[in-house]
Amino acid sequence: MSRGRKLFGHDRGLGVRWVVGADEAGRGCLAGPLVAGAVLFDLERIGPREVRALGALDDSKRHTAEERERLFGVVLRIAVRVVAVSRCVEGLDGRGLHVTNLEALSTAAGRVARPGALCLIDGFRVPDNGHEQRAVVGGDGRSAAIAAASIVAKVTRDRFMHRAAQRLPHWGFDQHMGYGTPAHQDAIRTHGVSELHRRSFRSVAYEGLLEPAAS
Length: 215
Fold this sequence. Notes:
- By secondary structure, this protein is an alpha/beta fold.
- 42% of the residues lie in helices and 16% in strands.
């Protein structure tokens, strides 16, 4: 049995026709936005051909960038609705990561949901958006809808970080996507923090670097 078929089996087992999945990318980064993705699947319109097309569907972290890009296109073709909600660094610093994350997930799920849909949220219960919801721990590896949302969120955010790397080349955002890798921390020590860095995060790489460096 393919991985995608197993994940769709989970969603069909819920006994509903309309399934929303929502997941985020970038929660643990030192720099860049948080992006929440959401998809709406009509399980009555997903047959063997669609399941085969998404046979490799899984948690976005288990795929290469090339595989995610391919799956992103398939998700756009098969899902009824797809949305990505981005929350900027200023908002993350001002409102806090956790609150912003829950709000973004709720908003994304609400934008694709339709009456009668069940919203599956990866790992969290989120603020009410008028639709039934369920938190699924490890959902990006259990639910087809959440796995598809994780692909949407990750691809959308990675594309943003690649564009940011062209504008702010000193920090290598196209290599680490804003995560706190050793190379990224070295770049911060050398060049300071950029406009995309989250000032509210506590990191040893930020010591003495309170002002943005010139790009």
